[in-house]
Amino acid sequence: MQQSIVQKSEHFDVIISGGGLAGASMALALAGLRNSQGEPLSIAVIEAGRIVENLPCSFDARVIALANGSAAYLQQLDAWQVIKPHAMAINNIHISDRGHYGKARLYSDDYDTDALGYVVEMQAIGNGLYKALGAYNNVRFIAEHRITEITWQKNQVDVELQHQAVGEQLDKSQGSNTLSNAEPSNADCLNDASATQSLGQHISAQLLLACDGGQSVCRQKAAIDSSLYDYQQVAIIANVMCDKAHNGRAFERFTDSGPLAMLPMTEDRCSLVWTVKPDQVEQLLALDDNGFAAQLQQHFGGWLGSIGKVGKRFSFPLKLVRANSSIYHRMALVGNASHTLHPIAGQGFNLGVRDVKQMASLIAKALATGQDIGNFALLQDYSQHRQKDHDQVISLTDSMVHLFSNDYLPLAIGRGIGLKVLNYLSPLKQQLARKTMGHID
Questions:
Q1: Per the domain annotation, does 82 fall within a domain?
Q2: Which pLDDT score, from 0 to 100, does residue 58 have?
């Protein structure tokens, strides 16, 4: 992995827009591939932020529920050995509906696996990916640059870059917190907001992979429409500590305002993702730690005893965004650039990992046979192979949100019965477990 400034005009095999988790995963999946002559791909990764100590500043202490299948793929990419010491295995998943009798349980032992998944801080995953990328010299990271123009030619994609002056966006008045540091805190990540922009630079490639998130510049430049559904919900996230050890248990608790997840972390911490209605957010964030813990206790119950320490709290609105197409001429959308999901089942990043895996597999086959890696047939294969998985996961998460964020009594009774049925009907339970573990049916 190299970090450098591009020349006025350079050509690569692949340009990856975005150096976050999706972009770094994509770069790592492609870095070891060789063409039929045994030559590696030349890969450029465009990252708008600054890279400090070999990590983008966008990596922070928010957590990701990593599916079993995603962890296996990261192991295949030689990143897991760095990530694993910081990962907490999910051995059991407890699903319940507050105020109603329905409950369901998933146990890793029932599926002959050590873990249904893992809970890992984003920074730890990023560190694993970037350390693994350090073994390759065919990946160029072009940091502090943004894409300003994209021109699609018959045999290549032309990309114009401009230096990105990153202004100070952090609230320095917020003190450090050992329980939760859910935003970047390294002052070295900040550029001078008054820095002048350099003249535009031009690069080109056979294939452009958009790994640049929900507000994807590449998607916008290609005029790919997307559908948006606002759930009218807000997620409050924080790290907390409870009286009882979590013992690798993850909890999904459905309340009248939306789902509440408690995910096990290392050092016996728990990561809270509490979905509430927009009009509740301001009041909950304004509470002191004791008041917030009391409200959380009321909604979560006593599954882990008393809720004690509460880390720094953050919130963000929840929306479902899905691109109407995941491909364009010599371009494909990967991860959140293609789909941004509700966190109810923790499937967003895992769906993106499977995007990466599929794209890497198709490119490997094209290289082995001497085909153009940006040809439209390859992109169509990618779109068709990913369609079913996207449809299933989006349908699962969306239906769960609507079903379990509704206090209408007949629905509440019905879902209570449904959870009971799920708990005792093996085929249904196995299907949910497989999807939770990141396996495609």
A1: no
A2: 60
